[in-house]
Amino acid sequence: MAETTPSKPGRKTAAVLTAAKRLFLERGYAGTSMDAVAAAAPVSKRTLYQYFPGKEELFGAVIDSVWSGLGSTAIPAGEDPRAVLRGFVERLIAHWEHPDVIPLLRLIMAEAPRAPELSAAYYARGKAPAVATLAAYLRPLAARGSLATADPELAAVQFLGMIKEALFWPRVLGVPAGLDADKVIAGAIDRVLIAPENKK
């Protein structure tokens, strides 16, 4: 089989991930074979297995490539926590608008009963780090008494839950959000942070 050119490993890996993502979304996880990915890339099967020992590892790399669209998960320090949290949410929303993000999640949800390892990989490689990053940012705020709860991990989960319930899950289900995004974000921030004048 003729391989893609130029033959740099980075270019080959990118070609494999592009082909794999397209086939997974078109055919599902069970319906996509390593042979089909190699043919679509195109690379030799030997090259494919050199980079990815199996389909599970390949799918994990596809998850990584999709989550990489979020950019650095680090939350920059800022003087105004409200502005920092709003910026974090705006980055999340931009990530959700990437054309592969929602279809990949729908695929994982559909495959979960037969392949629960896909859900575990999605959570471990993307969702869990995002929650941990937010909790790490909130931890100093909790120490200063600026959070409505003293538990930064709980605050991170609750904050993201308020955002995703109103703005993310309607996208997944393909229905209108029904709520103004700015109001949702402001309301979530209000419920997580304690206003300076209300501190004891």
Describe this structure in words.
The protein is an all-alpha fold. It contains ten helices and no strands. Helix 7 crosses helix 8. The protein has two domains: 11-62, Homeodomain-like (Arc Repressor Mutant, subunit A, Orthogonal Bundle); 69-192, Tetracycline Repressor, domain 2 (Orthogonal Bundle). Mean pLDDT is 89; it is low at 1-8. The chain is elongated, with a radius of gyration of 20 Å.
Overview in brief:
Residues 33-52 bind DNA. The protein has 200 residues and is mostly helical.
Key structural traits:
DNA-bd_HTH_TetR-type_CS; transcription cis-regulatory region binding; Arc Repressor Mutant, subunit A; 0% strand; transcription regulation; Tetracycline Repressor, domain 2; 200 residues; mainly alpha; 2 domains; DNA-binding transcription factor activity; 10 helices; disordered N terminus
List the SSEs and their pairings.
Layout: H1 9-27, H2 34-40, H3 45-51, H4 55-67, H5 81-96, H6 101-111, H7 116-143, H8 152-167, H9 169-173, H10 181-192
Helix pairs in contact: 1-2, 1-4, 2-3, 4-7, 6-7, 7-8, 8-10
Largest sheet: none
Class per helix and strand makeup: mainly alpha
Sum up the overall morphology in one term. Answer: elongated
Counting structural domains, the number is: 2
Estimated share of beta-strand residues: under 5%
Q: Ranges with pLDDT <50 over ≥5 residues?
A: 1-8
Elements, N to C (H/E): HHHHHHHHHH
Helical proportion, percent range: 55-70%
Q: Radius of gyration, Cα only, in angstroms? A: 20 Å
Quick one: CATH superfamily of the largest domain?
Answer: Tetracycline Repressor, domain 2
SS element count, helices: 10
Query: Mind telling me the CATH class of the largest domain?
Result: Mainly Alpha
Separation of the first and last Cα atoms: 71 Å
CATH-derived topology of the largest domain: Tetracycline Repressor, domain 2
Estimate the mean pLDDT confidence: 89
